[in-house]
TrEMBL record:
InterPro entries: Chorismate_synth, Chorismate_synth_AroC_sf, Chorismate_synthase_CS. It comes from Mycena indigotica. Homotetramer. Keywords: Amino-acid biosynthesis, Aromatic amino acid biosynthesis, Lyase. It comes from the Eukaryota. Pathway: Metabolic intermediate biosynthesis; chorismate biosynthesis; chorismate from D-erythrose 4-phosphate and phosphoenolpyruvate: step 7/7. Its EC number is 4.2.3.5. Transmembrane segments: none annotated. Belongs to the chorismate synthase family. It catalyses: 5-O-(1-carboxyvinyl)-3-phosphoshikimate = chorismate + phosphate. The lineage of its organism: Eukaryota, Fungi, Dikarya, Basidiomycota, Agaricomycotina. GO terms for biological process: amino acid biosynthetic process; aromatic amino acid family biosynthetic process; chorismate biosynthetic process. Reduced FMN (FMNH(2)). This is Chorismate synthase.
Length: 409
């Protein structure tokens, strides 16, 4: 269905060539100062036509706040967000009317519904993600004001061109593989900002790599082809305790949200697949006491989540995006009626989606974290209404926090 979330519920609507796209957000706390500009900033980063690396479809994607806000403050009631589709060109797709596009959603939508939008990707188009980005900007504003949470995503690879993330293994036969992610990459995770990410049209914050990525995308475009890539996202200042311990582990919720973005093919958190190459003695995140007396970890191969619950360290993960399916290079494939033919798709398409996927990844991250925060806060608020218990053995409570909350003497 088109709704995500338990307490912060986001419903998106719209197709590629209908009158408008948007979202309804239910469960946003009242009293949040919110302007159209707070949302527009992220919509502008997602817009098509930002550079010669993206589709030339010309959309302003100007958001209109329809409900749930008065005097620039949320009312706690559903927030309606409306964005007009202005540059529809259904006729661009006349050739693909005959063919289900290979690796797109035309065939599966028809199988599922028995009917589909007459042109373009319909609901499978990345136009749908506008509602997510708008909703994510609201979630993000709350998280920032309430907990100083920072969410920054960036392009970490295009084709085979990667940011310097790993250290070459010195001993591939033994257990002495290098650290899963280089110190340089870890420094980047703790310092990267949206303004450095936006300095290059690829949204890769490493200038030399960014330039090589740009050339790779241009090469794909010039060949009427496309290319994939990865987006890495880091979340700083996330409070501990978010995420549920079994089916709704925080990393499972993030994986679900990320893999719901069109064109995604993979998700890894923390040390990810490279973490499998080192022994536990290297991979364990030893605890240390922080200046404020709380426990932190010396390393963060867990990616800020243990047992499905945030531990207060930075959360970081990587999402894989495939090369977009619609290419104007001729492909031999079959028509809807089964006859073999050659499809060279017309229309306006992204040769590589990752530069525009960056704000979408940030938005889905914010939506997941906002929902998880509201779930945890409601549990804690309900627990706080109970009379304190002073008889619990010390092994059942966190010493410092328990003292603060008055639960042990
Ligand atoms: C920002 C963004 C832009 C996209 N642009 C295109 C595009 O121009 N052409 C295309 O074929 N797919 C594009 N896609 C991907 C399709 O929407 C997606 O591949 C399609 O819905 C099929 O879904 P699937 O790849 O998840 O199986 C884009 C995805 C994103 C996130």
């Amino acid at each position: 269905m088109s709704t995500y979330g338990t307490l912060f519920r986001v419903t998106t609507y719209g197709e590629s060539h209908c009158a408008s796209v948007g979202a309804i957000i239910d469960g946003c706390p009242p009293g949040l100062q919110l302007s159209a500009e707070d949302i527009q900033i992220q919509l502008n980063r997602r817009r098509p036509g930002q550079s010669d690396l993206t589709t030339p479809r010309n959309e302003k994607d100007a958001v209109q706040l329809q409900s749930g806000i008065e005097q620039g403050v949320t009312l706690g009631t559903p927030i309606g967000l409306f964005i007009r589709n202005e540059d529809q060109r259904p006729h661009d797709y006349s050739e693909t009317d005959l063919y289900p596009r290979p690796s797109h959603a035309d065939y599966t939508y028809l199988e599922k519904y028995g009917i589909k939008a007459s042109s373009g990707g319909g609901r499978s188009s990345a136009r749908e993600t506008i509602g997510r980005v708008a909703a994510g900007a609201i979630a993000e504003k709350y998280l920032r004001l309430a907990h100083r949470v920072e969410i920054v995503a960036f392009v970490s690879s295009v084709g085979k061109i990667h940011l310097p993330t790993t250290v070459e293994s010195t001993n591939e036969e033994g257990d002495e593989a290098a650290e899963p992610l280089s110190q340089e990459f870890r420094n980047l995770l703790s310092t990267v900002t949206r303004s450095t990410v936006d300095q290059h049209p690829t949204r890769c914050p490493h200038p030399e790599t960014a330039e090589r990525m740009k050339q790779r995308i241009i090469r794909a475009k010039d060949a009427s082809d496309s290319i994939g890539g990865t987006v890495t996202c880091v979340v700083r200042n996330l409070p501990p305790g978010l995420g549920e311990p079994v089916f709704d582990k925080l990393e499972a919720l993030l994986a679900h949200a990320m893999l719901s973005i069109p064109a995604t093919k993979g998700f890894e958190i923390g040390s990810g697949f490279r973490g499998t190459e080192v022994p536990g003695s290297q991979h364990n995140d030893a605890f240390v006491q922080r200046e404020d007396g709380s426990l932190g970890t010396q390393t963060n191969w867990s990616g800020g989540i243990q047992g499905g619950i945030s531990n207060g360290e930075d959360v970081y993960f990587r999402v894989a995006f495939k090369p977009p399916a619609t290419i104007s290079k001729a492909q031999t494939t079959a028509k809807y009626d089964g006859e073999s033919g050659t499809l060279a798709a017309r229309g306006r398409h992204d040769p590589c989606v990752v530069p525009r996927a960056v704000p979408i990844v940030e938005a889905m991250t914010a939506i997941v974290l906002m929902d998880a925060l509201l779930v945890q806060k409601s549990r804690a608020a309900a627990a706080s209404l109970l009379p304190p218990i002073t008889t619990l053995p010390p092994t059942m409570v966190m010493p410092q926090k328990a003292r603060e909350s008055g639960r042990v003497e």
